[in-house]
């Protein structure tokens, strides 16, 4: 499994170049980054050279389409999705991810019908470029009632929805935080097949009752109470070999420098990987 970073939790990064350089300096192998922006600023060859020079791959790109709002907004975003998919393919990235909020102000059944069709369309576009779409279930309890109607927040529900979308390139973005806030265990990971997981996020939770854990209250790996050693061991046992990318969401931006935060991240990865025997 590749150690990876997102920009979340790294403070005020000055540029993609700084992000890439720091990730490589502290031993990371993957970055979750906007492939299209990288290609637009460096060209395909320049972006490949930048990543290759630092021994990095792109773990995943984000889905650049707003599929939760109006039909007009969704349709308007599809051209950018095509461009993003082409850029990702050119840079060797095979994953694109989005999250599912666990409640909605829309009628849940109608929203499910719309979202299923829209995500199927996104998956079909991505599939033409050899890219998989990862769906992230979101577990924190406070978001389950944040909007009027409950939607999806469990692993089982998400797997059922993936089946309903019906495209072979759709799977899970599997996040340690949401695994924890759903009360899942290592045994739940071991029931999965590696091909069901598109991408993985890792982070940790503070020592508060799980019902009080906030989505933007995350801490760095190894600094909280999640059994990240078990999480990683479960992924290793089923044969997952992709990126495991740190994603730290906080209520206020970190005040420390990006370099000190990447160094802190490395220490966290070293701790939890060692505990997992990896």
TrEMBL record:
Pfam families for the chain: AP_endonuc_2
Keywords: Isomerase
KW Calcium (keyword) present: no
Domain (Xylose isomerase-like TIM barrel) ranges: 20-256
Molecular-function GO term, any one: isomerase activity
InterPro entries, alphabetized: IolE/XylAMocC-like, Xyl_isomerase-like_sf, Xyl_isomerase-like_TIM-brl
PANTHER family attached to this UniProt entry: HYDROXYPYRUVATE ISOMERASE (PTHR12110), XYLOSE ISOMERASE-LIKE TIM BARREL DOMAIN-CONTAINING PROTEIN (PTHR12110:SF21)
Protein name, UniProt field: Sugar phosphate isomerase/epimerase
